[in-house]
Design brief:
Length: about 250
């Protein structure tokens, strides 16, 4: 039996709260919904109502969503930020946001964000626990989309998966190398994208490299070997991954 999820909408604009409530009622009629129009009211509602998921506007009457969250030593509820300002995106994800929606809200993006959040809540995802199961469920929800959303300091960039030549690890960040010769830096790890791009014809040939097989020009033999991409760039294949990679090439 599915649990009853309690939702709290925190926004100082009545029109915004009404729209979120309407979208929730249309797509998820079984949810229990409460509202708060200020940081103080939201804090009271969180203590008394114990919501599973909060839709949280970032700027409210001189206060911010981060002022609210800083009142809690432990955040035991999911957060979907809703705002008209993209510059808060990176800070939002530092507060473990499940998603970040820009106003005006798009109905389909909203629906997908809530579906993802409820899956995560239902599986009680904790850091490094159940992450692969969660990502695979999200992937099936998205039905292998042809676009990927990259969080940046300015907001989000949407790139075509087919335009990604390869991804490289930079510490805990991932750098995307695109057909346009553009490079994009994401705050997610290479392991995160390795799981997310499963089924998209990508293979992790090295702990530092995730390649799009469609953009491989040549494989050079060697201890592990190396790949020459269509752009002329050469990427090392680790000895541990060589056998599995060559099997995929033969397939």
């Amino acid at each position: 039996m599915q649990p009853t999820y309690k939702i709290l909408i925190v926004d100082d604009e009545q029109q915004s709260r009404s729209l979120i409530r309407k979208l929730l009622n249309n797509f998820f009629p079984a949810l229990v919904i409460e509202e708060a129009d200020s940081v103080n009211t939201a804090i009271q509602k969180i203590h008394s109502y114990s919501p599973h998921l909060i839709f949280l506007d970032i700027q409210m009457r001189g206060e911010t969503a981060f002022d609210l969250l800083d009142k809690f030593q432990q955040i035991d509820f999911g957060i979907i930020f809703t705002t008209a300002y993209s510059e808060f995106a990176l800070k939002a994800f530092r507060y473990s946001a499940m998603d970040y929606l820009l106003k005006p809200l798009d109905a389909e993006e909203f629906k997908l964000a809530v579906e993802k959040a409820l899956i995560r809540i239902n599986n009680e995802i904790a850091p490094a626990v159940g992450q692969l199961k969660y990502l695979k469920q999200i992937q099936s929800l998205q039905n292998l989309p042809d676009k990927l959303t990259i969080p940046t300091t300015d907001g989000f960039l949407f790139i075509q998966v087919a335009d990604i030549i390869y991804c490289s690890a930079l510490s805990n960040y991932t750098e995307f190398h695109l057909l346009s010769k553009q490079k994009l830096l994401s705050s997610h790890t290479l392991g995160y994208y390795n799981d997310l791009l499963e089924g998209h014809n990508f293979f992790r040939v090295h702990r530092s490299y995730l390649v799009n097989i469609a953009h491989i020009k040549m494989y050079k033999k060697g201890d592990g070997g190396s790949l020459v991409m269509n752009t002329g760039e050469e990427i090392e294949v680790s000895r541990n991954n060589k056998e599995a990679f060559l099997k995929i090439l033969k397939m």
